[in-house]
């Protein structure tokens, strides 16, 4: 027989958003949840009930109800939940899913049951067709396009989190979900019962019975007890029928059954408490019963937060079994810090005791064990430690066993009742709850990315004068930081996309300097914590973000940045400029005028009303083209919001210290007859003051923006770092410093962000010639995510 912990999971689906799917067709998703047992076999949770959330919701105009071809269902043979089948016809199309599915799983409730890691997988499946309506009349060939995998930690703590399911960059789309977990019950399972149940009872039968049970739970409380009793009678009858009809088959599995470690629950508790030592009995209670009670309290608090929840029948429903026998107090030793320390201590201990077997459950209950205090169930500090252990007498043992079983059953029943109310709340109010979870999730992820950002504020009277040059040492600092134990062992997220964060060795490191004239009018942390930000996104909805590619580039160069911005700020409009794709050799002023025309055409085509913010992001020469467009957009000067350039040669490339790069630019200019390269090298006139870049520095535009960020990399040898960062050079060229002064004139921005980004670059020809860092900004998914998550003040 074995001691089992029962977990409940809810996966609630809200919206599917097509961000960058190339192909029209019919799509759906399949979901599964599992954990890996001691033999690394996948043990799947059983999906047993599904319904629609947001009942009574009226579809908004940008959702297409006609895109739904088939309702969601449970795939019994595969233990998966299948979403609605829907069509995708357009870019940035949204489909409201409105699905909720319940899963259940049982794990061995040994000393590590709280640390059981579950995994959630989601397959994106599609059949490509330009006429999705064919799905209704003829079979289509479906194929798996992409897989999302996330790890779920600390499920026993009761998780309630936003879960953005994001697929790979070749199929970039996002499914907005919430995920919920509950430790529901502890059961002492008979292997004969488990084997016989699995032998004849199909998943379909299990689901129908569970579904019937759920439906009864949703009935009025007055009839609830009667329904539960009826269900229990059905369970008992099915069990008896199962055992009798399969007795012969069960006998063939006697070896499996005889392998059970414990005869009954009395034997189990006796073993793990060292023959009912009072201290170990207390630990047993805290580790199981008190923890189950804490789950009820936490879930009830959550319900209290979102509605006027009050039910006198649940008050004082959970009592201590025998407080006069053992003084047991509520303790909360279940924080993430507690478990992190538990993992560290266990790893350290196991490394020191490789030749010993400490896997037995009872060993970790022993107060004299060499395990640390964090590795066994918490013992009350108020209990006096004695050399001679006190034990419960036989009568007290029976009382303890009976009371523990009764109390677990009582708490579990109350948990299931309140869990059903929580499901009902999700069904009715999922959209509102999702906004709350979304804010919390954004804060967690931005803080995690922020672990690799070195931040410094520099107060100065001149935002364009370098106070101290740190960039030359940043590469060495980043190299050492990637080796730090702390950075390699960051606290994990409770629910984490396994593809999101790179290893410490591959992680980009940001060196952020904020040149500040005076105290800013906003505080970054307050923006993240403001619960009204995401729920009132319509305030920021009329925000147009323009992305500009560089020399011989195209609109897909900044695809990663665009996709992550759309994912993070769904109400913003994003324009990836295409108009100059075949013309980057031409005059910069011509390219700027083209971009201005493209922006005006986009605003007219999209019927963007009351545009309130306009933001530019330019890579390399694209940052200069964006500035060249500004004089032709003067009527929008009052709504210019953020300007971000990535390795852009604002002050030209004439000061490049890499002679190989200088020679390459000269050759390219001669071969391609490129006027733009001639202008960037400031060779388009014998008089520097007559060159295009110098004249551009005197024109208004950059001073219109509320937020300005210059991004560079010390390893980028294509663009001089002072040109990309727009800083004066002490004892430098008169014209260089004069251009900086021209740009800074009438600057209304109170802060200028300057980021030096260090990438872990592999050896290559590009690295040898100094080009690798320049193009890595376009290829690095972590860089794009850090930009979108960690700098919301530039995009909200």
From TrEMBL:
Pfam annotation, one family: DUF676
UniProt source species: Tetrahymena thermophila (strain SB210)
Protein name in the entry: Serine esterase, putative
Residue stretches making up the DUF676 domain: 542-723
Region (Disordered): 224-246
Record's compositionally biased regions (Acidic residues): 226-236
Protein family according to the UniProt entry: Belongs to the FAM135 family.
Domain of life: Eukaryota
Coiled-coil residues: none
């Amino acid at each position: 027989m074995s001691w089992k912990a029962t977990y409940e999971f809810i996966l609630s689906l809200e919206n599917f958003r097509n961000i960058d799917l190339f192909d029209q067709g019919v799509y759906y998703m399949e979901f599964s949840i599992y954990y890996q047992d001691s033999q690394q076999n996948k043990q799947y949770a059983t999906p047993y009930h599904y319904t629609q959330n947001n009942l009574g919701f009226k579809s908004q105009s940008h959702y297409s109800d006609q895109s739904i071809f088939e309702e969601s269902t449970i795939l019994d043979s595969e233990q998966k939940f299948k979403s609605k089948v829907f069509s995708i016809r357009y870019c940035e199309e949204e489909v409201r899913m409105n699905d909720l599915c319940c899963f259940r799983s049982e794990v061995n409730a040994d000393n590590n049951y709280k640390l059981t890691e579950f995994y959630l997988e989601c397959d994106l499946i599609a059949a490509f067709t330009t006429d999705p309506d064919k799905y209704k009349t003829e079979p289509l060939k479906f194929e798996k396009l992409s897989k999302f995998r996330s790890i779920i930690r600390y499920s026993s703590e009761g998780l309630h989190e936003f879960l953005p399911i994001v697929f790979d960059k070749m199929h970039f789309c996002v499914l907005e979900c919430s995920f919920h977990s509950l430790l529901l019950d502890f059961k002492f399972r008979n292997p004969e019962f488990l084997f016989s149940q699995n032998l004849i009872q199909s998943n379909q039968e299990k689901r129908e019975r569970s579904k019937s049970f759920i439906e009864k739970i949703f009935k009025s409380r007055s009839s609830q007890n009667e329904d539960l009793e009826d269900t229990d009678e059905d369970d008992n009858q099915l069990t008896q029928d199962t055992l009798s009809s399969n007795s012969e088959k069960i006998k063939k599995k006697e070896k499996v059954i005889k392998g059970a470690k414990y005869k009954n629950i009395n034997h189990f508790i006796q073993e793990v408490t060292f023959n009912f030592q009072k201290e170990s009995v207390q630990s047993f209670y805290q580790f199981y019963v008190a923890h189950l009670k804490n789950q009820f309290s936490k879930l009830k608090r959550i319900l209290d937060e979102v509605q006027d929840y009050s039910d006198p029948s649940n008050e004082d429903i959970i009592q201590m079994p025998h407080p006069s026998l053992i003084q047991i107090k509520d303790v909360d030793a279940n924080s993430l810090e507690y478990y992190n320390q538990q993992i560290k201590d266990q790893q350290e201990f196991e490394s020191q005791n490789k030749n010993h077997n400490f896997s037995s459950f009872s060993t970790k209950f022993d107060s004299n064990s060499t395990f640390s205090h964090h590795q066994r169930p918490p013992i009350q500090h108020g209990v006096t430690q004695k050399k001679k252990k006190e034990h419960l007498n036989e009568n007290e043992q029976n009382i303890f066993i009976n009371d523990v079983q009764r109390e677990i059953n009582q708490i579990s029943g109350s948990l299931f009742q309140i869990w059903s109310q929580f499901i009902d709340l999700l069904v009715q109010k999922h959209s509102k709850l999702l906004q709350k979870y979304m804010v919390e999730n954004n804060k967690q992820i931005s803080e995690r990315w922020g672990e690799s950002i070195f931040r410094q504020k520099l107060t100065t009277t001149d935002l364009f004068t370098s106070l101290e040059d740190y960039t030359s040492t940043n590469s060495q600092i980043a190299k050492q930081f990637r080796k730090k134990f702390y950075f390699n062992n960051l606290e994990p997220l409770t629910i984490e996309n396994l593809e999101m964060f790179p290893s410490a060795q591959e992680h980009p490191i940001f060196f952020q300097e904020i040149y500040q004239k005076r105290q800013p009018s906003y505080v970054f942390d307050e923006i993240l914590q403001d619960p009204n930000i995401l729920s009132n996104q319509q305030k920021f909805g009329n925000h147009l973000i323009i992305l500009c590619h560089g020399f011989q580039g195209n609109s897909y160069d900044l695809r990663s940045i665009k996709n992550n911005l759309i994912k993070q700020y769904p109400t913003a409009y994003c324009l990836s400029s295409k108009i100059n794709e075949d013309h980057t050799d031409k005059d910069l002023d011509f390219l700027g005028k083209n971009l201005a025309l493209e922006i005006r055409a986009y605003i007219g085509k999209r019927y963007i009303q009351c545009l309130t913010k306009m933001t530019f992001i330019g890579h390399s020469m694209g940052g200069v083209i964006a500035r060249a467009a500004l004089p032709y957009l003067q009527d929008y000067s009052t709504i210019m919001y953020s300007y971000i350039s990535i390795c852009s040669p604002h002050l030209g490339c004439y000061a490049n210290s890499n002679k190989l790069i200088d020679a390459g630019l000269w050759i390219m200019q001669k071969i391609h007859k490129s006027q733009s390269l001639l202008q960037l090298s400031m060779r388009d006139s014998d008089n520097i003051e007559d060159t295009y870049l110098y004249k551009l520095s005197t024109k208004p535009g950059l001073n219109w923006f509320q937020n300005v960020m210059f991004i560079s990399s010390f390893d980028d040898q294509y663009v001089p770092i002072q040109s990309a960062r727009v800083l004066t050079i002490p004892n430098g060229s008169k014209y260089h410093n004069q251009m900086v002064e021209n740009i800074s004139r009438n600057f209304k921005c109170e802060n200028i962000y300057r980021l030096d980004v260090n990438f872990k670059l592999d050896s290559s020809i590009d690295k040898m010639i100094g080009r690798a860092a320049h193009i890595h900004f376009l290829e690095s998914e972590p860089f794009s995510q850090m930009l979108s998550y960690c700098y919301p003040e530039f995009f909200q």
